[in-house]
Amino acid sequence: MMVFLLAAGCSLSDSESDLTVAGSTSVQPFADKWAEVYMEHHRGTSINIQGGGSSAGIQAVRSGAATIGMSSRPLKADEQDLKTIVVARDGLAVIVHPSNPLQGLALSDVKRIFAGDIPNWRALGYADREMTVVTREEGSGTRGAFQELVMGPTRIYRRAIVQDSNGTVREIVAHDPYAIGYISLGLVNKQVKALELDGIYPGEEAIEDGLYPLVRPFLFITDGPVDGLARHFIDFVLSPEGQALIVSEGLIPAKARGS
Amino acid sequence: MIRMALLVTALSAVTILAVITLFIFVEGTPIMFKYGLKNFLGGMDWYPGERSFGLLPMILGSLYVTGGALVLGVPFGLACAVFLTEFSSRGLRQIIKPVIELLAGIPSVVYGFMGVVILVPFIRETFGGPGLSVLAASIILGIMILPTVISISIDALSAVPPSYREGSIALGATRWQTVKMVLLPAARSGIIASVILGMGRAIGETMAVIMIAGNAVAVPRSALDPVRTLTSNIALEMGYASGEHRQALFATGVILFVIIMILNTLANVTSRRKTK
């Protein structure tokens, strides 16, 4: 009995069975899924997934608080010493209330809306109501990707409502008939309507063929090469089984056609 | 021995306050001097990615929302306190006062959630706009400061010596005249203290405000426009901030700190002068 307890104690304190993954809240739900299935396969390992945001994840890797960081934005110039692995790709969907008659928008109109140049829906053939433009907060990976892919150097409208997660953006759009926002494609559900952009609906086909314009990488970040559990976990994530898990959750595999 | 232990304990609170103050100022002031205090206090643009750190919309936002909360919360709270001390039966007061104090124990996220689910759609459908607004935040904060205002005002009113009441009634004043001319002036400093504490709660509240204020970084043009407060600015962007962005959030903390100091000092000075 004593020996058994000692052995159990040893294996618990063994750092090889513990892994901390921290960062982007956009990647987090998918990392949770991976970790859950991985831990089912490998009893006795413990993978701890934490949120906090892309930049926090990168900092956590730097400080050693996490072995793997999650980021939904590319590394900045002063972060290039870290190693990145594309673990999935995500589409950004521009969403409106389901009662909104609009089916699609030109990407240039999306840009004008989020720059605050089209304040009223009437200009787009909908009700004479002010638009509720919903965006993410400064520093968010989703906002960064939207800024880069849609806005370019143009600033996002300062009167836009700011929410700090995909979920709350969706919540607002789902309940405000005059709202427009953008969220991770994997989180679009029946409560909101994803718009066609330049005539292309963000469906699986269009994204895999590289036609849909708003696609960003989901990254794992490490401080140099890793081994042991971290390596094993990354291998699992990139394996056909790991990739199948996230495709069923609405993401796009890391290596898709057209990329 | 016990005296020493008590002294150490007492001083530790002061030390913690000093450490926090020092830390916020050390982290936050360098960037304010680097880009100029004027840009921080007077700038309208908050685009930390482009090194624009204008905090004016947030400073005004905090003041608007706090002011709104006081305008809505203080008259209600005071009326409630006067009713409970002067016009209600003892039994009723013994039921109502603990219930009001229970309101203070409800976590702010619950207030925020109620705001999002009930108040925001109501404002959007009745008055227009996005619903997430100065008005919504003021109403929720107004409710949140009620327990503070009510229970401290009750204590202040109850502390007025019974002889004041009796004297006033004996001179032929009505009950209402007694309240207005005798009790409220006599309890003034306590009532002002309740307002100060309520204001402190309103300006420092973060979670509920993030959920219902809309957080747009612009000076609101009406009560129906979204607004961002200094506290929500820090909480919203903390997770992602690094480098100068992070320092700018500490600078936000510095300004919040200074505003609270100014408001508290002002309120303290006025309440002291009036009681003399």
What key attributes describe this structure?
heterodimer; A: 259 residues; ten-stranded mixed β-sheet; two-stranded parallel sheet; 24% strand; B: 276 residues; mainly alpha; 12 helices; 78% helix; 1% strand
Q: What do you see in this structure?
A:
The complex is a heterodimer of chains A (259) and B (276). In chain A, the strands form 2 sheets. In chain A, strands 1, 2, 3, 4, 6, 7, 8, 9, 11 and 12 form a 10-stranded mixed beta sheet that branches. In chain A, strands 5-10 form a two-stranded parallel ribbon. In chain A, strand 6 (132-136), helix 5 (141-151) and strand 7 form a beta-alpha-beta unit. Chain A has 9 helices and 12 strands. With 259 residues, chain A is an alpha/beta fold. Chain B is mostly helical and 276 residues long. Helix content of chain B is 78%, strand content 1%. Chain B has 12 helices and 2 strands; from the N terminus they run H-H-E-E-H-H-H-H-H-H-H-H-H-H. Chain B has a two-stranded antiparallel ribbon with strand order 1-2. In chain B, helix 4 packs across helix 6. Chain B starts with a helix and ends with a helix. The model of chain B has no long low-confidence stretch (mean pLDDT 91). The interface between A and B is medium-sized, with 32 and 33 residues.
